[in-house]
Request: fold
Amino acid sequence: MDKINLRSTGWFGREGKDGFIYRSWMKKMGIPTHLFDGKPVIGICNTWSELTPCNSHFRELAQSVKNGVYEAGGFPLEFPVMSLGESLLKPTAMLYRNLASMDVEESIRANPLDGVVLLCGCDKTTPSLVMGACSVDIPTLVVSGGPMLTGKYQGADISTSDLWRYSEAQRLGIIDQQEMYNIEAGMCRSNGHCGVMGTASTMACMVEALGLSLPGNATIPAPDARRKVLAHLSGIRIVEMVKENLKLSDILVRQAFENAIIANTAIGGSTNFVIHLLAIAGRIGVPLTLDEFNHIGERIPLLANLQPSGKYFMEDLYYAGGLPAIMKELLNHLHTDCITVNGKTINENYSNANCYNTEVIATLDKPVNPIAGVVVLKGNLCEHGAVIKPSAASTHLLLHTGKAVVFENIEDYKQRIDDPDLEVDENSILVLKNVGPKGYPGMPEVGNMGLPTKLLENGITDMVRISDGRMSGTGFGTVVLHVSPEAALGGTFAVVQTGDLIKLDVFNKILHLEVTDEEITQRKSKLVPFEGIVDRGYVSLYQNTVEQAHLGADLAFLKGGSGSIVTKDSH
Ligand code: FES
Reply:
């Protein structure tokens, strides 16, 4: 192998005391001398954790990556970082996305790594790892954990989106707790993340469309042996990337972000895509604004017939051709000359892809739904924007004016939503305040709040709901999210009152509070300043520095990067 200029030489290539210390303590792990001899050192950034069940198979995946790294003449070193499990973390995994990204950034920068493979799975483990890596910017490749197999219950295919339906059926007394136990066992029956086009699958598609993973990475089910093959090949490829000095900033150009937005429209990806992509763009230094999501890919329809916008599951998508088949259908709309981690362009990677089931992956001529993507709304109720996913909404509610029923916070909602005296009907608009980044804090996935039981009993299955929080990517309904500025900052959203008329017009991208400017100004003058600021620990840091949703909800001081150079030694 030709000698290449390796970052790790600054550790293992040293002589004297420093080199002794750097190498000697590695040798205690049984590592032979020749592995330090100018071989690319590849970090395997692992989010394995039993507290993140979606990523519980990552030790095996890491071993496959290592096998590939060794085969290619590299030297793999696996390391743990903070792992964010969507299902267990309180108050919400989103509160810790930026903290995990700091762990990733500093772990990569501080160590003798020439390249890094990011093992990503459950929702936040993808953006947190990519954000952190962007701020260092060495050769980086993503391997996703893959979706779980489709759940099975009493002959039906089920997955996470059905959770919301079963929950409402239980509230109505249609199913009891014992049946819920049986369903939950059948839903999550294998390794992997949620098996619908929720946020985890959206993130896996995002990294592939950005060019950060090998083609096919997004959809191979976690238990499928081909997932390990892809991990092995990724291990080989990252060593080559180091030799080519192919860095994140070479791949994450403006056009790559546009490709990701176009792909997200076609797959019916999660609304969380918007907030995470904005944060990643902020780290790598690519200008991208929330408003641009309305224009990029505007005419792209929904191609993937997957829950929650459609019918099928991630396992079906893989067998139908996976993301490569969708990318091929989109080629005329993509920047096809963008370089990806395998050194090839989008066109080279996807022009020969095949679709094996047009019921699951539709064509541009005969799409699943002509309405797709995430629509950015503007109006006096959300001066900096709000988002809605129309493909997961009810068509008859996309243009709707109704009276607000306001809940000041999540506790207020839980206390009153089933109050028999609550004045609410199917035309009302449920408004939930103080679930934004600063206000909750952490911006939880409570925006698709359950409907009042008395309306469910009358067969009502959807209403317009508006909040400054987020929604699970597995959720659905006519749900307006990410209202910015959030209520805790004292914008117009903070002064909405029960009985106010609100107009939602998704076709014209408008969210308007039908109250005069004078009245709004007067209400704002009486607002009590937000009192929920925590005064210690990470939460204090978060609340004092987190940006609003329309900017990606990163911590302001984390934007951009500090690069990979460390000038001072430790000894
Ligand atoms: Fe991990 Fe859904 S809970 S992806």
Notes: Residues 54, 86-87, 122-123, 160, 193-194, 198, 200 surround FE2/S2 (inorganic) cluster (CB under 6 Å). The mean pLDDT is 96. DSSP finds 19 helices and 14 strands in the chain.
